Amino acid sequence: MHIEFLGTGTSQGVPVVACDCPVCQSQNPKDNRLRSALYIEIDGLKLVIDAGPDFRQQMLRIRQRTLDAILLTHEHVDHVFGLDDIRAFNWVQGHPTDIYAEERVQDTIKRVFDYVFKPNRYPGIPQMNLHLLENKAFNIKSTDILPIRGFHHRLPVFGFRFGNFAYLTDVNRVEEEEKEKLRNLDVLVVGALRIEKHISHFNLEEALQLIDEVKPKTAYLTHISHLMGLHDEVEKILPENVHLSYDGLQLDL
């Protein structure tokens, strides 16, 4: 399994527009974060989790020419507003792109990208095949995927497990039965917004509590804001098996 962190930032990214804090002014590339998304290649399957406003830039950076599917965690702008750019994959591959999302998220896609679903469609629009995500295991080609239900304040969202790897972002609560899906992992990626508590995201302490509870061999934090602090300074205070992710980080499991 090959994994690449396409983006590890919040809805604003880092640096934040008009901000002159030390993190936003940092010259360390690890402090520059596009909106959170992940690329996974497993058994020949190529997929992306979330397609936010930086999707085009992210695909150009990794020189991706084909894509089998996009999994959507939820419907917020920083996770879906890049979907128009699947047009390039449609042209190259000659078929629509498979998009996996729960019903509520599909409703948002149909509203935001209404031109995609109109009877008389404008030429050149993106082509999407929408597939319904439910809280039960499914597969794409030969790859088994297990959704993990979390809550983003009151909004239900999905994370995903692939074998011994799991990705869970934009959550501030995971029920006990869903935590069981996070046991016996080699790698867990979980969102950690900042040091201080937040109404709809794990802060650093809460993310570390979840990691300590489910005990993956290694964990990476993502969806990181400029309020977390400088990458290299935060790394020094983390447990030995926990790291801040950064854009372009690659893992091979």
Compose a concise summary of this entry.
This protein is α/β, with parallel strands linked by helices and 253 residues long. It has a single domain, classed as Metallo-beta-lactamase, Chain A. The strands form two sheets. It has a seven-stranded mixed β-sheet with strand order 6-5-4-3-2-1-14. A seven-stranded mixed β-sheet has the order 7-8-9-10-11-12-13.
What topology emerges from the helices and strands here?
Elements: E1 2-7, E2 37-42, E3 45-49, H1 55-61, E4 69-71, H2 77-80, H3 87-93, E5 97-101, H4 103-112, H5 114-117, E6 128-132, E7 138-140, E8 143-152, E9 155-162, E10 165-168, H6 176-179, E11 187-191, H7 204-214, E12 218-222, H8 231-235, E13 242-244, E14 250-252
Parallel strand pairs: 3-4, 4-5, 5-6, 10-11, 11-12, 12-13
Antiparallel strand pairs: 1-2, 1-14, 2-3, 7-8, 8-9, 9-10
What does this structure look like?
- The protein is α/β, with parallel strands linked by helices.
- The protein has a single domain, classed as Ribonuclease Z/Hydroxyacylglutathione hydrolase-like (Metallo-beta-lactamase, Chain A).
- The protein is built from eight helices and 14 strands.
- It has helices at residues 55-61, 77-80, 87-93, 103-112, 114-117, 176-179, 204-214, 231-235; strands at residues 2-7, 37-42, 45-49, 69-71, 97-101, 128-132, 138-140, 143-152, 155-162, 165-168, 187-191, 218-222, 242-244, 250-252.
- The strands form two sheets. A seven-stranded mixed β-sheet has the order 6-5-4-3-2-1-14. Strands 7-8-9-10-11-12-13 form a seven-stranded mixed β-sheet.
- β8 (143-152) and β9 (155-162) form a beta hairpin.
- The model has no long low-confidence stretch (mean pLDDT 97).
- It holds the Pfam family Lactamase_B_2.
- This is Phosphoribosyl 1,2-cyclic phosphate phosphodiesterase.
- InterPro entries: Metallo-B-lactamas (IPR001279), RibonucZ/Hydroxyglut_hydro (IPR036866).
- Residues 34-223 form the Metallo-beta-lactamase domain.
